[in-house]
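QA checklist item 7 of 12: single-chain prediction sanity check.
[x] sequence parsed
[x] length recorded as 255
[x] structure emitted
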Amino acid sequence: MYNKYFEVFLADNPEGKEVNYRVRYQVYCLETGYENPSDFPDRIESDDVDSRSVHFIVRARATGTWIAAMRLVIGSLDQLPISQFARIEPELLLQNTGANSLVDFGLCAEVSRLCVISQYRRRAHERSVPHQVPWNPNDDIDESANQERRKAPWLMLGLLHSARIYSEEQNIPYWFFLAASSLARIIKGLGMKLDRTGPACEHRGIRYPFVANMPGNFDELRTKYPDLAETLSNEPHYRLFSELARDEYEFPLAV
């Protein structure tokens, strides 16, 4: 069902990564003002962390438009950006994850730059943030609405689910998030289990460090929405951007 409307790609070559950066420019620089557009004159929102990240992008099948993006920053815990901005309490981290020691965090990922273009953030309480808000997939929806738009809240879930599959393939057992409480609630609403690992910090607003133990995560989604979980598990998780011929995609043109 998700793949009827959207495609998730792993940006495994420079062209795919450029798509990711251009979607981020549109959302973070033009739509939400989180970043200053003048800092990115080439309309590519990128930083030094991208060189050690894995990038994902989403395309709308009906239009070919690139509509969402995220990245996983890969490395040991002390190499992740979260370690620069937040204080992670070792005892709390071990307690929440069941790890034996900090040595177990030699390979982790930090979820970063999770964003959706404004066309798919139409509700009033979504317009000032780069992401979508929680929803109940069991709610009745106006059947006359555009089918693709009706499935728009699946975007973040599809991105996170695809990244989870990638993490399992690469044996990455832990994800970290530096997030506002509102975004943490959104991610939890998508069926993920997140645990606080330290106190609040100031990083473009109040943020909190969270950890997700990836083996067995999304269990809440299976419990709350079994049909939705079954659909995701049975559909393709992501494609490689390098599989696309040059005439099969266009670069986003931020306006």
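[x] summary fact logged: Residues 14-31 form the longest helix (18 residues).
[ ] second reviewer sign-off
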